[in-house]
Amino acid sequence: MAEMQNALAYMAAHLPGIAAMLLAMVFLIFVPHEFGHWLTARYYGFKALVFGIGFGYRRWSLILGNWWGTEFRLSPILLGGYVLLPEIDDAFQAAGARKFPVSQRIAVSLAGVAVNVLVAIVIMTGLFAVKGAQSVSYSTAVSGFSDTIKVGSEAGLKVNDVFVAIGGTAITQAQDVPLAFAASKDKAKAIPVLVMRDGAIVALAVRPDENGLVGVNLSARPQFTYTRYPLGRALVEAVKTACETEVAMFRDLGKAVGLLPASQNEQFMGIVGIVDIGAQAFDQSWYSFLWLLSVLSLNIALMNLLPIPGLDGGHIMFFTIEAILGRPVDPRWRDTLTSAFFQLMVLLALVLLWKDIARLWQLE
Prior knowledge:
Blueprint: H1 2-13, H2 15-44, E1 50-55, E2 62-67, E3 70-74, E4 77-84, H3 90-94, H4 102-130, E5 133-145, H5 151-154, E6 162-166, E7 169-170, H6 176-182, E8 191-197, E9 200-206, E10 216-227, H7 231-256, H8 271-284, H9 286-305, H10 312-325, H11 331-361
Parallel strand pairs: 1-3
Antiparallel strand pairs: 1-4, 2-3, 5-10, 6-7, 6-8, 8-9
């Protein structure tokens, strides 16, 4: 009961961020993805019967209108979207409908992925041009003092002091602090210490104990700097960053399936975990929130490219086989594989959902 109350209190405290993340995922990631499919399909002359924003029965949905031969719906389960393209399916074509070339069907399948990448690049370009490319460095600050070793507090160190240098050695990371104190050869002599306090440099003299300890607790604090670019350079940097991000995601995918070693600290999340991270980013800053959306859009693009039946990559795989063999893949094999992988993806989603909930409720 206590865990449930904590979870509900957490959700209430982050409700604006949760709502913002859900809406942004739908209207900045999922809907543009489906719009890519729809626009390309309409360009080639496919029938696009339905453009659904969200999921749910038609009777549950708000019919926005019927334009260009497509019924646009807003459905209550806002966890994605879809475009109904019956002519992209081989069985429909066999019934006498217009047959579209493999190249056009592949183009329609690729269009959603392309739009996701484009959305990410547009967001990144805007961020780089408006505020700048973000760089992160970490400073080491005093977060508290030991109850038994009073050296640091007696020497004048205070909570929130940021270490700049110890004994002439610049401090760039948390582990530099104990190493610098322990490296003093003359324990009877105080070590000059420079700290940043309230925007000013303060000089202190600290004499470690016989073990080289001063009795301070440390915390690493991120410091963000931004480099703004003109629009053209911002676009170039955005494309470069998007490519680097996709390569990193390929590596992470390799870790997820066991092809590459994964560290114990790495965790893979489902929809609840993603929304939670988004809500935290929303509370942190608009920059962090938009940056997360751009990365998520690239992630959606990558996942949809995987040659898994039911995903865009699966359609592309079947169409490519058709182009090589000169005939469509047997519908029975295709439908069986699609059904099997769909069930596996649902199972994976449920496992990740449970892990997300367990992590948030601290059940694990």
